[in-house]
Amino acid sequence: MAASPSTFTSSSPAPAAPQNGRDAVYVAAVPLRVAGGPARMMMSAAHDLNMWDLQRYMVALKPPSPHNQIIVYDFQPQNPEDVWVAIAALSSQSVPGVVLERNLKRLPSKSCWFVGLLRPEGLEVAKEFNRRWPTDLKIGHHHCRHYADGNWTPD
Description:
By secondary structure, the chain is of the alpha+beta class. Helix content is 25%, strand content 27%. It contains 4 helices and 6 strands. It has a 6-stranded antiparallel beta sheet. Helix 1 runs parallel beside helix 2.
């Protein structure tokens, strides 16, 4: 089962705990960070005109132990709050991107979908995928939803 854009249309129930000692895979939609001023006005206009959904998708791995932190992978622009990055992104130009890895104490409470359980070797496969992922970000062609869809193939 691979995560696909159609998977992310509504919240799906999450399991109470990962099964068989494997990490649970989630995809979460989080608000897009935008600086104030012209960039925020431009993004608001794009949202109001239904030109662009102002959120980004990230992948979260929840370990079987409740004491371990959640690992989150996030493909986004290197400087998401730069007005020139926003202009380039809205005009379908490529911008430099980066895959961030960080830890969270808990999953986001809204817009977070369980997509499956990670295969036993899945974490190593994911890390290799991240090393090879082209980081040129282009809205509509190579962005966070493509990353979430392409990286995670749970059982």
